[in-house]
Backbone:
């Protein structure tokens, strides 16, 4: 069924126009000279210049990146451990509760997660700041990491690990030398997912951030509430640009790796 | 020993930062508001006796007696339901066309659907503010084509909330439906047509039932987050758009009434349990069917 009817062509065109036009308009109008966002008054990059002068935005951006790096790294370690426990851990006391706690945050409304964490931090007297945002982000993103990693763990051939153990590896060495290299792509995409989730989060950060630390989404949200502004358009364009370059290069790299792997396997098959 | 540490570390983390906070929310929802900061009583300091004695269902009674909360829950459910149906209507044709596209296009099409996921949710919602406003691009375009003679008010209405939800969640709908349709054996449709079905009948009697799991999964993936949505109603919706996520936020940040905010959260959670369980069951059934 490789022919596309006019109906399919129309729905693809309209569908992708719907998905991408709003962002294209946003990007185009970030280069607008006028302060009025919906009236075109000529090309200019002045809003980017103003953005770079805006200390508050730069500070918030720095906090956001710091939080994202810390929380995604922690989440990757914890999430990979959790995935390993779920897939290879066998039976242990409270396994159902554990898997419930892994899947529940994925469907929990953010307002509830944020509220509950804030009440916890206040209850134990922890000052709200970078640390509390990192703790909050790690908690929900480790669940995403563990879902990504466990789906990879489930599909891989266990006999490879058993062979390593038979050949005298300790279980930690078997994990490091055999399991980890095989699940590495999933671990990396888990980290990337955790990183973007953290960059993106407004609601949970609003609950857990204190006056000492504001993240970029919180800043954007409070600016945007007052209406559309060309500076935010410029900021959005930068963020969209980074994401696009990142995702496309990640997919090119993984494509090249899988091609190389295929070639290696073919070469191995020929020499065998 | 190693195995114990491997289990204990993530387990303890989730207990401390996921389960315990919920217990606290539940506890505070049963407490009275007090003037002291933090604004809730009672605490466990005096032991269990006075702790349980001081708990009551006052906040829940308050929620039940105040129209605002009832209306907010009902209107969230209605908005989530209608936008799920609309998202299905928008997403299904896209997923269908993707599954029918030449095989070498499909990975690229998939990536184009996933790409917006990686873009900030806030920015995607914000993009619509410039489009839907009174002097925005949609009104400019419609005035230019002559379809309307005066600008429409779309921003700050419930319509804008529907558009925002469809836009941000349609990838969640497309992907599971696409993966169901992608696996669908084309010869089944040919067989149906050979046996005298019209194209539409074949679609209705063969394609739709065989993509049912995808439709169900996609619908839950849209419905569940839409129900507690905060960003979309607060940026695109107006004062007439009541959604419970926004009510909870305002109760907490503006009114600083933590016990009531907690009670709102507990009820939202109770409402969500049913669709979440149904969703889990659908996923399990699908996993068994795949195995």
Residues:
């Amino acid at each position: 069924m490789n022919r596309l009817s006019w109906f399919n062509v129309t729905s693809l065109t309209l569908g992708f126009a719907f998905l991408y036009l709003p962002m294209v308009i946003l990007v185009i109008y970030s280069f607008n000279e006028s302060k009025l966002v919906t009236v075109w008054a000529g090309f200019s990059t002045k809003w980017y210049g103003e953005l770079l002068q805006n200390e508050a935005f730069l500070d918030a951006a720095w906090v956001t990146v710091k939080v994202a790096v810390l929380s995604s790294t922690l989440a990757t370690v914890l999430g990979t451990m959790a995935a390993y426990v779920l897939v290879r851990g066998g039976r242990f006391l409270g396994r159902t509760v554990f898997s419930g706690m892994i899947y529940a945050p994925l469907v929990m409304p953010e307002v509830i997660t944020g509220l509950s964490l804030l009440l916890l931090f206040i209850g134990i007297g922890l000052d709200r700041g970078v640390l509390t945002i990192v703790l909050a982000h790690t908690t929900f993103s480790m669940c995403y990491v563990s879902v990504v990693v466990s789906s990879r763990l489930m599909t891989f051939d266990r006999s490879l690990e058993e062979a390593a153990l038979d050949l005298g590896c300790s279980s930690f060495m078997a994990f490091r030398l055999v399991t980890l290299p095989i699940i590495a792509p999933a671990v990396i995409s888990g980290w990337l997912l955790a990183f973007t989730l953290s960059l993106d989060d407004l609601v949970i950060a609003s609950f857990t951030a204190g006056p000492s630390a504001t993240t970029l989404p919180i800043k954007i949200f409070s600016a945007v509430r007052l209406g559309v502004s060309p500076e935010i358009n410029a900021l959005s364009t930068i963020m969209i640009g980074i994401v696009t370059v990142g995702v496309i290069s990640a997919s090119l790299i993984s494509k090249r790796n899988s091609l190389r792997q295929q070639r290696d396997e073919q070469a191995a098959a020929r020499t065998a | 020993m190693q195995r114990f540490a491997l289990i204990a570390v993530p387990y303890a983390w989730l207990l401390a930062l996921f389960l315990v906070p919920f217990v606290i929310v539940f506890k505070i929802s049963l407490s009275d508001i007090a003037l002291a900061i933090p604004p809730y009583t009672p605490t466990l300091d005096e032991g269990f006796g006075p702790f349980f004695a001081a708990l009551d269902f006052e906040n829940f009674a308050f929620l039940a007696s105040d129209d605002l909360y009832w209306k907010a829950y009902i209107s969230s459910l209605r908005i989530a339901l209608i936008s799920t149906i609309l998202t299905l209507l928008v997403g299904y044709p896209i997923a269908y066309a993707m599954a029918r596209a030449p095989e070498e296009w499909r990975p690229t099409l998939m990536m184009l659907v996933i790409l917006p996921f990686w873009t900030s949710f806030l920015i995607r919602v914000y993009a619509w503010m410039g489009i839907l406003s009174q002097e925005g691009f949609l009104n400019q375009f419609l005035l230019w084509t002559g379809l309307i003679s005066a600008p429409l008010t779309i921003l700050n209405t419930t319509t804008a909330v529907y558009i925002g939800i469809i836009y941000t969640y349609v990838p969640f709908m497309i992907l599971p439906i696409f993966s169901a349709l992608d696996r669908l054996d084309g010869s089944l449709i040919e067989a149906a047509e050979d046996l005298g079905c019209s194209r539409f009948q074949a679609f209705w009697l063969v394609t739709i039932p065989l993509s049912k799991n995808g439709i169900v999964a996609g619908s839950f993936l849209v419905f569940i987050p839409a129900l507690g949505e905060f960003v979309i109603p607060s940026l695109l919706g107006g004062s007439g758009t009541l959604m419970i996520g926004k009510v909870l936020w305002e109760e907490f940040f503006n009114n600083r009434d933590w016990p009531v905010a907690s009670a709102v959260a507990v009820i939202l959670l109770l409402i969500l349990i049913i669709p979440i369980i149904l969703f889990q069951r659908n996923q399990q059934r699908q996993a068994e069917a795949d195995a």
In short: The mean pLDDT of chain B is 86. Chain B touches chain A through 82 residues (CB under 8 Å). The longest helix of chain B spans residues 67-100. Residues 248 and 254 of chain B are 10 Å apart (CA to CA).
